[in-house]
Write a structure and sequence with these properties.
Length: 536
């Protein structure tokens, strides 16, 4: 079938010229409700349990996503889908529909909005009904990567186990058939050689390898099956050796059977690699992945913009900047890099908004020029702008977001998941050792609450069953973004943080105990140092 997507190497070669510019221990102690202020002021707000901090400035994210849905979303006959264009009534399909859905997932990642969660479930359910496995008919392994990426993100957001099942199927099928060691010492074919028409390029591209590598990372987060992490590292190592310029950060298009490298660049290739590298950094703590991701971000910033704006109005393109929005957004948030990149992110966000179609609030890939009032333009051309605005707040955030060690102001011990990957495992304290079991990733919801996720188990800090009883030990559970997993994180006058449950108002508390392995609990706020925490 005819394909005209970003994935195809003949298209990339034509366009290369302008792409460059463009165990818990049981407590025996008795707690009291008496305030322990240790000479520190306790305000009426903190006494009353009133949250007053870290209000979210969403910028134009909501308006952009609402406009995208107004222009393209269809709910009809029990199906939910994005249509092919404003003027079309036909559902987008296969890999293009996956790109459309990824933009909706970006909105949920930012907002935690229950309506968007339902929408994602319905979109993916419809997509699977229209594109049921097996997918062996599709020889393009990057297509399977986009299928599986939308599904595994959807699983993490909705908990629908079928999405996980099909994402695993997609990855395993593409990796097992596509990974080849006869040529280039490894790598995943872009299109299966036995399914490539005569005369077309046979190669291994960044698109197939990085998309599937990123999927492997997300499946690992979801299952903790070490095979997926091993696969992700294996694919990454091959990409790094064959398609990555470790001096400049450029990600090359691909390499053919004769080891000839296509050195063309594309912003989406840079972005998928950045996201992939950042996931591996968060999972493993290996700083080399961080350095690779940053180098590739800087390559785009310094070499692939027009006056600082990421833009490409080529007619053949579907998306352009969507994967880079995700990669940059995750990297900046997870690693507290707002001061380095926020002004550039905002510059692009402002260009997107200034050049939108105001009737729908949608912007095409050419972010530095007015979006045409052409109702035949494909839906996916507008996804990149939606994605960018989900990851660029209206004001520069503080540094609560991202990875932290949560350390007691009273005794210096850290919040620790005891190295457990089990739902319901109790959260304990342990002397700070900077291990993965002491790393917690903070992401914010649109109501300004926070999700706190273990970077060892990828489970959420949780008040079991929303139990408001003083002394309840906190546990970890599959992330749901329910209110028993939402936390207010409020800085106090001494620079420490009060971390308290949205569901119960109970504060994270170490019971004034410094014993390694001692349980961490919730307790009504009393202002004591046993309830004050440093984010390191």
């Amino acid at each position: 079938m005819e394909k005209k997507y970003l994935t195809k190497s003949n298209v990339l070669k034509i366009s290369t010229g302008f792409m460059v510019v463009t165990a818990a221990m049981l407590s025996g102690c008795k707690k009291t409700d008496e305030a322990q202020t240790n000479g520190l002021p306790t305000t009426n707000a903190t006494k009353a349990g009133v949250h007053t901090k870290n209000v979210v400035n969403s910028g134009n994210a909501d308006a952009a996503f609402n406009g995208y849905n107004s222009a393209f979303l269809v709910n009809s006959g029990g199906q939910t889908y994005y249509k092919q264009s404003i003027s079309s009534s036909t559902a987008d399909g296969t890999w293009v529909a996956s790109l459309d859905i990824l933009a909706a997932e970006d909105d949920y990642e930012r907002s935690g909005n229950a309506t968007t969660k339902t929408l994602i479930n319905n979109l993916l359910t419809t997509w699977l009904a229209n594109t049921p496995p097996p997918w062996t008919w599709d020889g393009w392994n990057d297509d399977i990567g986009w299928f599986s990426l939308a599904l595994i993100r959807g699983y993490q957001m909705t908990g629908n186990s079928n999405f996980l099942t099909q994402a695993e199927y997609g990855f395993n099928m593409a990796f097992s058939r596509g990974w080849d060691t006869q040529y280039n010492g490894g790598g995943i074919w872009e299109q299966q050689p036995n399914m490539t028409p005569a005369g077309q390029t046979i190669d291994k591209e960044a698109l197939s390898n990085n998309s599937l590598g990123k999927v492997a990372c997300l499946i690992y987060q979801s299952t903790l099956n070490p095979t997926y992490l091993s696969d992700a590292v294996q694919i990454y190592s091959w990409v790094w050796a064959n398609l990555y310029n470790s001096s400049t950060g450029q990600v090359y298009t691909g390499i053919n059977e004769s080891n000839v490298v296509n050195t063309g660049s594309a912003v989406y290739n840079q972005g998928t690699f950045v996201d992939y590298a950042n996931y591996l950094y968060q999972i493993t703590g290996n700083v080399n992945y961080y350095n690779d991701a940053k180098r590739s971000i800087d390559y785009v910033k310094n070499n692939m913009t027009t006056g600082g704006i990421i833009t490409n109005d080529a007619a053949y393109l579907n998306t352009w900047g969507d994967e880079f929005a995700r990669g940059l957004g995750h990297f900046v948030r997870d690693n507290q890099m707002w001061s380095t990149y926020y002004s550039w992110m905002l510059q692009n966000a402002n260009a997107i908004w200034a050049n939108r179609r105001t009737d729908y609030n949608i912007t095409w890939n050419g972010w530095n020029e007015q979006t045409p009032s052409d109702n035949t333009l494909t839906t996916s051309k507008f996804a990149s702008a939606v994605a960018w605005l989900q990851f660029t707040p209206g004001a520069q955030p503080d540094n609560i977001a991202g990875m932290h060690f949560i350390v007691s102001a009273q005794n210096g011990v850290a919040v620790d998941n005891a190295g457990s990957s089990v739902n319901g495992a109790g959260i304990i304290q342990w002397g700070l050792n900077s291990g993965q079991n002491q790393k917690w990733n903070f992401t914010q919801n649109e109501d300004s609450s926070w999700n706190i996720i273990s970077e060892q188990s990828w489970l959420a800090l949780d008040v079991p069953g929303g139990n408001a009883t003083n002394g309840t030990q906190l546990d970890q559970w599959t992330p749901t973004r329910a209110n028993n997993q939402r936390w207010w994180v409020d800085q106090q006058s001494d620079g420490t943080y009060k971390i308290w449950s949205q569901a119960t108002s109970g504060a994270l508390d170490n019971s004034s105990n410094s014993t390694n392995g001692y349980k961490l609990i919730e307790w009504g706020w009393n202002g004591g140092t046993n309830q004050r925490w440093k984010l390191q």
